[in-house]
Amino acid sequence: MDDVLLNYVMRVTQVAPIPAPSTEYLHNVLVVVPQKTAETPKTVVKITTQSDLSAITDVTAPMFLKDGGLTSFYALPLADLNMSVAGGITGLDDLEVFTILIDPKFGDDALESLKLPNGYRGIVGGASNDGALVEERNKMENNSFFYQTANAEGNNMYRAFGSLLNPNNTLWSSQQFISMPQSDNVNTYESADDLFNLRANFVLTSKEFGNRLAFFCVGGKNNKAIAIHAPYVTEELVVKLQGAALSWINLNKPDYTTAEAVLLQDHLQGIADEYTATGQIGEIQITVSLGSNDFVMEADITAPLPKATWRLNSILTQGE
Prior knowledge:
It is built from eight helices and twelve strands. The chain is of the alpha/beta class. It has two domains: 25-228, no CATH class; 233-302. The strands form four sheets. A six-stranded mixed β-sheet has the order 2-3-1-4-5-6, sandwiched between helices. A two-stranded antiparallel sheet has the order 7-8. Helix 7 runs antiparallel to helix 8 (258-277). It is globular and about 75 Å long.
């Protein structure tokens, strides 16, 4: 209502809140592909069609990212895997991504000279038919590598990441047993169990159910594999808590008191509880208190690691 008498008695000026921070970068992917020719510029290119990709490389498998649900992705054509500042790459500094995928066409040996962009702290994915290499990679923090059959092009890896990062997903999940495009000749219990024990991402081929994603993980701390969605959930939670704190302080102009600290704590706890309520993460505890320095409150956030269930060990007891 815009009434002259109301405005006369109490004129109200609305203050626009600071908008929530974007988490779009969590769904962005950069694929490093072999250059089409030595003259192909080392420039980041947004890919929406097959012709976009064909203009910079001869590989086609990255298009399976779109099969998984992405509408576009970024590609960087290189002769090697040097993505450091010294690589002379255009468009990389301003690109915000949390996932970099290495096309398998580079070969396993090229991984030894892999140099990520300065300051990059996201996920690195790849694929190989060397089980030992995949095991080693998936022990490294933020590395997520697939086992694939010899001469495969990474179709399954791209399809899995496309499904994981699909912006239409309402929740983060590990994509348990989704349908996959091709067989990697893992069709016996023994071979599947061996790959699982290596903590290798892989596709299992079933006579009845076809090709299914049988495991999808990422390297965590202390050489231990964790659920693939864990770093994404954690990153998104941190950004949303930061944004919520910024917006609340901007709107409320709080005093430096215990009462205000409790109000901020309750606001942040409400954001965290949304993740717990949807099952993406266990119970989170947030405590905000006055610190030892004026102007700065202290926040303690305790959050469990998101997990995923892939298998069951069962015992059948038969009675008379």
